Structures are given as C-alpha cells and as structure tokens.
Model the fold of this input.
Amino acid sequence: MPAEAIPDPESLSLKLADEAATARLAQAIAGALRAGTTIHLSGDLGSGKTAFTRALLRFLGHTGRAKSPTFSLLEPYNLSSFDLYHFDFYRLSSERAWLDAGFDEYLDGRGVVVIEWPEMAGDTLPAPDLLLRIRCDPTAGADARLVEAVGRGPRGRECLNAIRAAGFCGPDSGLAAAPR
Ligand SMILES: Nc1ncnc2c1ncn2[C@@H]1O[C@H](COP(=O)(O)OP(=O)(O)OP(=O)(O)O)[C@@H](O)[C@H]1O
Ligand SMILES: [Mg+2]
Done:
C-alpha cells in the first residue's frame, strides 16, 4: 500500500477506575465490531488484556467459559454475528512463529481478531484497526488503568466513536466518574 493510503491513526486517552469500567469499555467496543475488525492489546502482565477480552466476549453473547490463550496461543469463539479469534503471543518462540503456525489464515477478514502481546510478532503483524495500550495507574489505586486507544481507518474510527459515545472522553470522564 502506498504510504499516502495508510490512514492516520487517531488516539484517545481514557482512565478506568476499576474492572467494571474496563467491562464498560469492552461493551462500548463490542457494539462497534464487524467481521474483520482487528484489535491489539498491549500492556504489562496483569494489566487486564484478558479481562477486557472476556468482557468483550460476554457482551457479544458468549455465555461459557473464556480460557486465556496463554498456552494454546489461540482460543476461537463461534459467536452469533461472527467468529472471534483470541490470540496471546506472549509465548511465541519467534516473531514469525505465528505465520509458521498458519495463524495468518485467521486474519482473512472473516472474523474479529483480538491479539494480546502483539509486540512479540514484531513487524510481521499488520497494523490493527484498534490498539489499546493498557497501563496500571498505581497512583490512583490497584484497580485503576490508563488506556490509550489508537484507531486507524474506518473500523478504528467506529471503535473510537463508540468509546466517545459511551462517555469515556467527556468532561466528566475522570477516574471518579467512569461512565455507568
Ligand atoms: N481495571 C481493571 N481492568 C482489568 N482488570 C483488572 C482491573 N482492575 C483489576 N483487575 C484485575 O487484574 C487482573 C488482570 O489480569 P489479566 O489476566 O486480564 O491480565 P493480562 O493483561 O491478560 O495479563 P497477561 O499479560 O499475563 O496475559 C485480573 O485479576 C483482574 O481481575
Ligand atoms: Mg492475558
């Protein structure tokens, strides 16, 4: 793709007071997903990438258990509107190992793709529609998280718009007033 055709990313900064606020963020994003949307989740161990994905699955109608793909690398879900592929690349043996395993077939645009630890794949992964960079915010309490949401292209913009519409970025969206 020529450089000028790559859409500029746009980003939003959010504060999440607790895990319930993380779930509300997942709820907002769940409503904006379409088959083919890709989400990358970056952040330290225990920052809440799997917790976010479990909430996302719940709001997409998954009622069963949602296992962390830490060891399997991939957990697939057959949801009512699309398939969702939940990856965790933390244990990838090399940047290209996901390609060698044939996982690129899941990025064919038919399902929603959520990838924890995308940085383990280096530059071999295409840029996502939405990147959530999650950081703990110990100054605001053990459960507080700071999130930078970076959206690219129409699908990324739809996600960012849904986050805004859910009230995460307005004047009252500080930690104490995470949206209900
Ligand atoms: N605001 C919050 N958002 C998400 N999880 C939170 C929050 N506050 C506390 N938690 C807790 O933090 C932990 C997050 O664990 P989780 O497995 O989701 O992290 P992770 O980022 O997926 O880690 P890993 O890199 O090991 O896969 C859970 O125990 C969850 O209950
Ligand atoms: Mg995880």
